[in-house]
Amino acid sequence: MAVPPCVRAATIDDADAIAAVHVATWRETYAGLIPERFFDASALEARRRMWTRILGRDLAPGAVAVAERAGRIVGFAFAGSSNHPDALKGVEPVRELHLFSIYLLASEQGAGGGHALLAAVLGDEPAQLWVASANSAARAFYESHGFHEDGHVFADPGIEGLVELRMVR
């Protein structure tokens, strides 16, 4: 088995690299499911601004971890309060903790980085998350970590055909 990447807490200096991985992993994961505008140069700049804002706060809005291999960020995860609008999606939270994102470059998947990232931001705590219904690999990953679908579904009004399922543990 491959050696997992090193996982550590993210810092403001990681914002650009996290943004690049964010856009790259979305392209790898969602090409054909969501529009190209989520992968272009403007998407990268928007993600840079977002991660700089999140990581630049004096009081962090949650836990952000990165996975590194040979000094290069190859993945990240972010968990925080389930009271944020991106966590609610019109449905009352059932857990205090929400996994907003966990992404690992395809070339790194299967080496344990996803498990380490999940542990870094959630530990064994009860949590909730939203996952694209078409992403069967992600759903299986979450199930292997004790999550299950709770019956709530969100059809994203901004992305035709994107349906998300809520999972909890």
What does this structure look like?
The protein is α+β, with helices and mostly antiparallel strands. It has one domain: Gcn5-related N-acetyltransferase (GNAT) (Aminopeptidase), CATH 3.40.630. It contains five helices and seven strands; from the N terminus they run βααββαβαβαββ. It has helices at residues 15-30, 41-55, 85-88, 113-122, 136-144; strands at residues 6-9, 62-69, 72-81, 97-104, 128-132, 148-155, 163-168. Strands 1-2-3-4-5-7-6 form a seven-stranded mixed β-sheet, with helices on both faces. β4, α4 and β5 (128-132) form a beta-alpha-beta unit. α1 packs across α2 (41-55). The two termini are 28 Å apart.
Helix and strand layout, with pairings?
Blueprint: E1 6-9, H1 15-30, H2 41-55, E2 62-69, E3 72-81, H3 85-88, E4 97-104, H4 113-122, E5 128-132, H5 136-144, E6 148-155, E7 163-168
Parallel strand pairs: 4-5
Antiparallel strand pairs: 1-2, 2-3, 3-4, 5-7, 6-7
Helix pairs in contact: 1-2
- Integer tally of domains: 1
Instruction: Report, as a whole number of angstroms, the end-to-end distance.
Output: 28 Å
CATH C-level: Alpha Beta
Q: How do the helices and strands follow one another from N- to C-terminus?
A: EHHEEHEHEHEE
Count the beta strands: 7
Give the mean pLDDT. Answer: 94
Biggest sheet record? 7 strands, mixed
Helix content: 25-40%
> Can you tell me the CATH topology?
Aminopeptidase
**Coarse structural class:** alpha+beta
Overall shape: it is: globular
CATH architecture: 3-Layer(aba) Sandwich
Name the poorly predicted regions. none
